[in-house]
């Protein structure tokens, strides 16, 4: 637990200049996500499978790690995002990234977005490649 808290702090989660903290993590070969709005004291939770067990795991992890790091122990409300459900057995990571991006942008869901899955895969791959090919520290 201490290591998880240390990593979260090291990545700047507790920095007061950030109003939101986003996270994606793995629960038994499956990706889930959360977004904490520090000011509203609200944690949006997203499981692409819409599984109660996974939602319980998200809430438990956020309570044990992030509430402590953010000094919000016992102060967060939790809300499930239920408007997107993965349609296959391999797109959980893509939907986690897409849903977090939509929440941050204030965008609304439309079921036609499911058809964009191949585009989203390529879009996020391109973003990762562009980050990985940037010079680091003046190199």
UniProtKB/TrEMBL annotation:
Q: What Pfam families does UniProt report for this protein, alphabetically?
A: Peptidase_C48
Q: Which residues form the Ubiquitin-like protease family profile domain?
A: 24-110
Keyword annotations for this protein, in alphabetical order, are: Hydrolase, Protease
Task: Please give the coiled-coil regions recorded for this protein.
Answer: none
GO BP: any one term: proteolysis
Gene Ontology molecular function:
cysteine-type peptidase activity
InterPro entries found in the cross-reference section:
Papain-like_cys_pep_sf, Peptidase_C48_C
Superkingdom of origin organism:
Eukaryota
Q: Does the entry feature the keyword tRNA processing, yes or no?
A: no
Task: Give the family this protein belongs to, as stated in its UniProt record.
Answer: Belongs to the peptidase C48 family.
Instruction: List the protein's name.
Output: Ubiquitin-like protease family profile domain-containing protein
């Amino acid at each position: 637990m201490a290591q998880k808290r240390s990593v979260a702090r090291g990545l700047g989660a507790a920095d007061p200049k950030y109003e939101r903290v986003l996270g994606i993590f793995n629960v038994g070969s499956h990706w889930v996500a959360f977004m904490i709005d520090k000011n509203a004291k609200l944690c949006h939770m997203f499981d692409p499978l819409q599984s109660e067990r996974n939602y319980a795991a998200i809430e438990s992890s956020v309570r044990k790690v992030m509430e402590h790091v953010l000094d919000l122990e016992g102060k967060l409300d939790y809300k499930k995002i239920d408007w997107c459900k993965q349609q296959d057995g391999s797109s959980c990571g893509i939907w986690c990234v897409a849903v977090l991006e939509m929440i941050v942008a204030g965008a609304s869901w439309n079921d036609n977005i499911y058809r964009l899955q191949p585009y989203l895969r390529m879009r996020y791959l391109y973003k990762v490649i562009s980050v990985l090919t940037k010079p680091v520290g003046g190199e």
